[in-house]
Specification:
six-stranded mixed sheet; Maf protein; five-stranded mixed sheet; homodimer; 3 domains; Alpha-Beta Plaits; Molybdenum Cofactor Biosythetic Enzyme, Chain A; 412 residues; alpha/beta
C-alpha cells in the first residue's frame, strides 16, 4: 500500500510552523508497512487542495490530510473534500452532541463556530477524537481511501492511533514488508564513518540500502530493507548491524529509539553512580535533556544553573581567585565547577560547562564560541575546549551533545 | 514569483527526521515576497525526483531542492538533475580545490567520496558553501530557475543567505508584495479568541486574511496581506493589529519574532528585577528557554534543578515536615521552593515547579499529570495547580509555558 501525506495551511508554506505532523505520520505508516511516496504541503485554497487530492490519488491508495478542520474561519479542507468527492454536506447531530458534552465537562457553552464544525461531506465515516472537538473523517473513493484529521498534533495523533490504525489500516492489505535499523554514533563525521564501513555496505544484498543522517556532533546510520520475506529481511538487517557496530566500536551509542541522554542514564544506572550538572552557557539544557527521559530520577539528582559569577562562587565554590585570574570561561573554572557540583549536589560524577554562547560577549582572547567543559568525579577531572560559531542556539545544542558524550566516555 | 520547495530523502518520508529546512526556506522566501505554493518531500530515487521537478516547473518559476548532495552513497539528486535537464556531467576542478583547502585547514586529506562530489551537471552556476564540502548549484531552464543545496541545515542556510539571495533572487522580479503580522497570545483557546475579534475580522478589507495557530497553552494569530501596494498593505495590517491587541488586552504577550521567554525577560529588565527558577519536573526547561535569549544574563541569575527530595531540602530549604506532611508535589512545597530559590539564588522573583510528569509515578490522590507551580517574591507568592495528561514531554512543555506566564503576570 502506498500513501501520500498532505498538510494544509499557509502557515506551513510561509515557514511559520514546522510540519512535525507529517514526520510523525511518516514514521507510523512506515512501521505499519505502508510506503509513503510523497509528503506535500499546500495553501488554504480550495483549488490547491483539490489538485493535491487528485495528484495524490494518481500515485497512492491512501491520502492522509492534516489541518484545516478547526472551528475558525480559515478552515476550508472540508469544503474542498466535498467538492473533490462531488458530494453535498449534512449536519451531523452525533458529532455536535460530542462537542456539547466536551464543553459541558469544562462548564462552558458551545458557539456557532462549533456548530459549523459539524457539517460533514456525505459518505463520511466519523472517527472519534477524544482530545478535541473536530473529529477525523474517513472517505472511500473506488478502492482508495482519504483520511482527514485536524492539524493540532495531539488531536491528530489520538485519532490516528485510536480510531484509525486498528479498525481500518490493519484490516487493509499493505503489500511489501519493510525493516529498518538506525545506528546512532557520536564523535566522527559522515565521511569518516562511510569509509570505515564501506566494505560492509558494498557487500549488502540487493534489498538493503544505507543512509547517513548527520546532525550537530552526531551521525545516524540507517539500514533500510524492503522485500516480501519479512523474516529474511530482519535477519539481513541484523547481521549488517552487528558488522557495522563491530567496526565502529565506541563511536556507537545506541540503536533506533535510543538517545544520547538515555544511553548516558542507562550506563550510569548500570554502574550504580549518580550524576549532576553545573551549567552556565547551556542554561539547563543538559539537565533538561536528561530529565526528558522517564525514570531519570534514580541517576540524575539535580543541576545548578549558575548563570551569574556570584552563583558560581556561592553555590559551586569556584574561588574568586580563579574567576579573577582565569575568568569564568576557563579550564580552571569548569574544573572547580565539577568539584563544586559533586559536593553541592551530592553526586558521584558531574559535568560542567562555561562558555560564550554568543552572539555577543566575545573578546580577542576569548571570542564568541569559546566553550570549556569538564567532567569527572571527586578524584579525577577531564576537560575539553571548543571553538564554535557565533550561533547561540547551535552552540548550546552542540555543547550539550559534547557534554553528554563526556559523561558517556567517563564510564569507558 | 512562485516557488516550490522540494526535499529529497527517504529519511523524511519514513519520519526519521523533521523537515525544518523547508520551514526555514518558506519563511525566507515569504520575507522576500516569493509565494511558496508547494512544499514536497520525495524519496531518494531518480524517477521520483525527476517527476517532482517536472511538476514543480509546471506551477512555479523557482524550484529549490535540499538534500541528496552529500559525499555518501545514498545521494542521487545530482544524477537526477542532470537527467532532468538532459545534460552531461563534468569534473569541476575549482569545487575540488575548495574541498581540498577546507580539509587542509583541518589537517586532513580528501577521499574518493569527496572527489565524486565534484562532478557537476553541465550549465551549473556553482554557489559557494563556506560551511561544508558540497556547493550549492543553480540552473536555468527557459525562464525558470532550479536551486539545489545540501540538506545539512547550517550549510543550506549559509548558501541561501550568502550565495543566493543578494546576487540572484533579489535581482529577479518577485511580483506581488506580502505583509504579515503575528500576534502572540497565551491563556485562552482559539475559539474564545476568534469570538472576541470576529467583528474586527469581518470588517477586514479583501486583501487581508486571518489564521489561528494553536499550540500548548498559546495561540498565534496571523494577519496576512497580499497585493500590489506594499505601503497600503502595511497600513491595513497595522490598523488591524492595533484593534485586535486592544480587544485582547493582557492575553497578548508579543508580536512576530517575540517569544514568551523574551517577553518575560524584557518585562523584568524594564522593572529592574532579577529572576531565577527552582525546577523539579521541568528539569531545567524553564531556565533553558530563558537562557536561549541573547543577553538573558542581566535578568536571569540561575536555577536550582532539585530533582531529588534531599536537594529540595538542602538547596531550597524545603523543610522535611512539609515534604513529609504534604509531599514533594504540593502547594506547600512549591511555595517553600520559591522562598528557597529567592534566598539561594539571591534573586527578586522566582518561579517553582514540582509535579508528576509521567508516564509513571502517580498515586490515587496525585495522579500522573498533577503539577504545582508557585511564583512570587519574598513577601507574596501565588500558586497554581494543573491536572495534565500522561504524556511526559507535553506536560513539561505546557507547564513551562504556564510558569513563564506566571512570571509575566507577576508584573501586571
Amino acid at each position: 500500500m502506498k500513501a501520500t501525506i498532505l498538510t494544509i495551511g499557509d502557515e506551513i508554506l510561509i515557514g511559520q510552523i514546522v510540519d512535525t505532523n507529517s514526520t510523525w505520520l511518516g514514521e507510523q505508516l512506515f512501521l505499519e508497512g505502508v510506503q509513503v511516496t510523497t509528503m506535500k504541503a499546500v495553501a488554504d485554497t480550495t483549488e490547491d487542495i483539490i489538485n493535491a487530492l487528485k495528484q495524490g490519488f494518481e500515485k497512492s491508495d491512501l491520502i492522509i490530510t492534516t489541518g484545516g478542520l478547526g472551528p475558525t474561519k480559515d478552515d476550508i479542507t472540508k469544503k474542498a473534500i466535498a467538492e473533490f468527492l462531488e458530494v453535498d454536506s449534512y449536519f451531523d447531530e452525533e458529532a455536535f452532541a460530542h462537542v456539547k458534552r466536551m464543553f459541558a465537562n469544562f462548564g462552558r457553552e458551545t458557539t456557532e463556530a462549533h456548530k459549523e464544525q459539524c457539517y460533514m461531506p456525505k459518505g463520511v465515516e466519523i472517527l472519534k477524537n477524544k482530545m478535541g472537538t473536530a473529529p477525523g473523517m474517513l472517505f472511500k473513493k473506488g478502492d482508495k481511501y482519504l483520511l482527514s484529521m485536524p492539524g493540532v498534533p495531539y488531536e491528530m495523533k489520538w485519532i490516528f492511533k485510536n480510531s484509525f490504525i486498528e479498525p481500518y489500516l490493519r484490516s487493509w492489505d499493505t503489500g511489501l514488508s519493510q525493516v529498518n535499523k538506525t545506528i546512532h554514533t557520536v564523535g566522527r563525521g559522515e565521511t569518516y564513518l562511510e569509509e570505515q564501513i564501506r566494505p560492509i555496505v558494498q557487500r549488502f544484498p540487493e534489498e538493503l540500502s544505507m543512509s547517513y543522517l548527520p546532525s550537530l556532533g552526531r551521525v545516524r546510520l540507517r539500514i533500510n530493507a524492503r522485500g516480501e520475506d519479512k523474516l529474511a529481511l530482519e535477519s539481513s538487517v541484523q547481521s549488517a548491524t552487528s558488522e557495522i557496530k563491530e567496526v565502529l566500536g565506541n563511536l556507537v551509542f545506541g540503536e533506533d529509539k535510543d538517545t544520547l541522554e538515555s544511553a548516558v542514564l542507562n550506563a550510569f544506572r548500570n554502574a550504580n553512580l549518580t550524576i549532576g550538572t553545573a551549567e552556565s552557557c547551556t542554561g539547563g539544557n543538559i539537565a533538561r535533556l536528561l530529565t526528558s527521559i522517564p525514570g531519570a530520577s534514580d541517576v540524575f539528582q539535580g543541576s545548578i544553573v549558575a548563570y551569574s559569577n556570584s552563583l558560581k562562587e556561592d553555590l559551586l565554590a569556584v574561588s574568586s581567585e580563579i574567576l579573577k585570574n582565569h575568568g569564568a570561561v576557563s579550564e580552571e573554572t569548569v574544573s572547580a565547577m565539577v568539584q563544586g557540583a559533586i559536593k553541592t549536589l551530592g553526586v558521584d560524577v558531574a559535568v560542567a560547562v562555561s562558555g560564550i554562547a554568543g552572539p555577543g560577549g566575545g573578546t580577542p582572547e576569548k571570542p564568541v564560541g569559546t566553550i570549556w567543559l569538564a567532567c569527572g568525579n571527586a578524584q579525577e577531572i577531564r576537560t575539553k575546549k571548543l571553538n564554535l560559531t557565533k550561533n547561540r542556539l547551535k552552540n548550546i545544542e552542540y555543547t550539550t551533545n559534547i557534554a553528554l558524550n563526556m559523561l558517556r566516555q567517563y564510564l569507558m
